[in-house]
Design a protein that fits this description.
Blueprint (H helix, E strand, L loop, with lengths): L1 H31 L3 H4 L3 H7 L3 E3 L6 H12 L6 E3 L3 H13 L6 E5 L3 H4 L2 E3 L11 E8 L2 H4 L1 H9 L4 H12 L4 H11 L1 H8 L9 E6 L3 H18 L2 E6 L2 H10 L4 E7 L4 H7 L3 E18 L13
Parallel strand pairs: 1-2, 6-7, 6-8
Antiparallel strand pairs: 3-9, 4-9, 5-8, 5-9
Helix pairs in contact: 9-10, 9-12, 10-12
Length: about 300
């Protein structure tokens, strides 16, 4: 019987040792921010978990310049802005939220991701991102004379963040941009009639619209394209480019118009460079915003918190 008692005692000691080891590991994880919940709870552990990286979009976007300005303004030493695309940014955000992990992205509104996820902007007390903006319609010089019907529609085009969000959400849910635009136009006939009323038919004349691959600009450009084609008979080509070529195209007359100019901050450099070579028809949507965005469960409130 003595050998059996010895074996039982050894087994009991082994179980106690394993339990102690697991408890130690758990305590270590909790103190170091090893879990996603713990990581979301302190600025320091958030910085470590995201490897001091901010997930951005295409390098030519004005929001990327603002994000770099924020890194400098807030003294975020060691932080890096990762270049990519709007699609890559939202994919990374979706993955992080599903795994309940912290992530910091460049964000803007209107955008469908604010309807799909519980997100928040980090406060920007140094105003690195410039506050609220408007999206303007900008056309090439001479368009009013050459294409008066298109000019009229572009000059009258104005809608709300809710309008834009409806189109963006339909695209995000799987509709093609052209289908989402048609759906919105059909559902908002009175508003669209205000844009086209009195405009002469174009009889197949060609028109080029430039836009950047932001979800907001995909929505607005496709709506305007569909209206010009279906209501006035234009043959419209939508050219997806980066912000610099978009502005250069309108300024040089190779592109007729864009409804995707974020002013006064995001596209400030392009406006300064090309303002004498284009015509600004004013805002088509007001109340936009850009900044650094995190999931609501991340315990950060300001860009300043990233430096703690």
């Amino acid at each position: 019987m003595k050998p059996n008692r010895t074996k039982k005692r050894v087994a009991l000691l082994a179980v106690l040792a394993l339990a102690a080891a697991l408890a130690g590991c758990s305590g270590s994880e909790a103190s170091s921010g090893g879990s996603a919940e713990a990581g979301a709870g302190s600025a320091k552990s958030v910085a470590e978990q995201v490897k001091r990286q901010i997930v951005g979009i295409d390098p030519g976007a004005g929001i990327m310049k603002s994000a770099n300005q924020a890194i400098e303004a807030y003294g975020l030493d060691g932080w890096k802005l990762v270049e990519g695309s709007s699609a890559a940014m939202t994919a990374a955000l979706d993955k992080a939220i599903k795994e309940k992990k912290p992530i910091i992205v460049t964000g803007w509104t209107p955008h469908w991701m604010f309807a799909k996820y519980d997100l928040k902007y980090l406060a920007d007390p140094k105003n690195a991102f410039g506050g609220e903006e408007s999206i303007h319609t900008v056309v090439r010089l001479g368009l009013k004379t050459d294409q008066p019907s298109a000019y009229q529609v572009l000059d009258r085009f104005e809608w709300t963040p809710d309008d834009m969000a409806a189109v963006m959400s339909a695209i995000q849910e799987g509709k093609k941009p052209e289908e989402a635009a048609k759906q919105w136009v059909d559902a908002n006939a009175a508003k669209v009639e205000g844009w086209v009323s009195g405009a002469a038919q174009a009889d197949g004349q060609s028109l080029k619209l430039g836009y950047v691959a932001w979800d907001s600009e995909i929505a607005s450009t496709n709506v305007v394209k569909y209206v010009l084609e279906s209501k006035l008979g234009y043959k419209v080509t939508a050219l997806q480019v980066e912000a610099g070529p978009m502005w250069a195209g309108v300024a040089g007359g190779d592109t007729d118009a864009m409804v995707a100019a974020w002013l006064p901050t995001t596209h400030a450099d392009y406006w300064s460079k090309y303002k004498d070579k284009v015509e600004d028809l004013g805002p088509n949507l007001s109340g936009t915003k850009t900044g650094l965005v995190v999931p609501a469960y991340v315990d950060l409130s300001s860009i300043e918190d990233l430096n703690k």
